[in-house]
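Can't paste images in this forum, so I'm doing it all in text. The chain is below; anyone willing to post the predicted structure tokens underneath?
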Amino acid sequence: MMFKHTIVKKPGKSYVNGLTTSDYGKPDYEKLLEQHAAYVEALKKCGVSVTILPASEEFPDSTFVEDTAVLTQEFAVITNPGADTRNGEIKEMESVLKDFYKKFHYINAPGTLDGGDVLQVEEHFYIGISDRTNEEGARQLKEILESEGYKGTIVPLKEFFHLKTGVAYLGNNLIVAAGEFINHPDFAQYKKITVSAKDEYSANCILVNDYVIIPKGYEETKRKMNDAGYKTIELDMSEVQKQDGGLSCLSLRF
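Text version of the structure:
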């Protein structure tokens, strides 16, 4: 599936006070801006248009745009993020997506859903139940997808923060899997690039047209991808990792 468009959002200064479970220390805002700019350049290199939204200081986590929507070729699903402080982010995203989509679906309370818990593998969507996505939110999305002719599988998480923290799809029936997903029955039918425990962060990578964008510093993961025939772009993600973020979280790709 070739992507034409991406949406990203500049991080605000309030980002450094956003939600996190990590113990990597406080992000360096100037360095974060450099890393975000490099991310935008990498997307452009992959041949997509990039819509850059301005920073929103009132929403510290809003640079993680992936959580606000689930996008297919035909329709957009506006989510209902699981952290209360993030809920207002969907208003802006819905208005931006109206430039690209005519058809919208919505996840409604008490259902919660973060887009980081949703992995698309061709016509099949995997929906993680996590601290941020509850059973009701996952059920609503599955119902929406099935009503539109897609398949949905709900995957309760045991270890990971979001589903896509530990699994990515690279096309050609190939997934990247770490931790609980390496031997997970729901992913047994796919070919796998497995990521070791020490390199777990690199499981969150994104295929954007001709390239796989991966975090910098994970030589084993990079080698496995290159050996599988993929061209890679490496990006320093240190300031994003400090707030539980990964490569997929920073953009909506469609």
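The mean pLDDT is 97. Residues 29-45 form the longest helix (17 residues).
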